[in-house]
Amino acid sequence: MKIVGYRFTMTALFLTLLCAVFLRVNGLPHPPATTIPPALDKSLYNDKFDNINLDEILNQDRLLINYIKCLEGTGPCTPDGQMLKDSLPDAIKTDCSKCTEKQKFGVEKVTSHLIDNQPTAWKRLEKIYDPTGGYRIKYQEGKNKGSDIIT
Length: 151
Hints:
With 151 residues, the chain is an all-alpha fold. Helix content is 64%, strand content 0%. The protein contains 7 helices and no strands. Helix 5 (101-117) packs across helix 6 (119-129). It is globular, with a radius of gyration of 28 Å.
């Protein structure tokens, strides 16, 4: 009888200590992270497609036309095209404030290509996404000043 009582006491003591440790560890708030990794920063757009080869798209009319049709709503969208289409109105409205550095570079590259080399397509997209032409005006002002970056 003493052995059973001893085991019961030890088991109860073990469970009590386990619960105390568990509650103590899980009951404390986790210290906040000092920095937010870009992929987890909800204030930035998703960077999942940041490594797409933009030169390949811009230099192949078939690919470029498919992206333009996606943005115009006249053709199907690839997953990255759909993400761009979904983010574009907000990006224009906020001057790309939620863009990663790679995205800002990509925006610069693509829009300068479209404005300079595909003006008809640019005008169609501009009517949809930037009817006031504010982005094009900024681009042209920067170009006239010799600046490579739109800010």
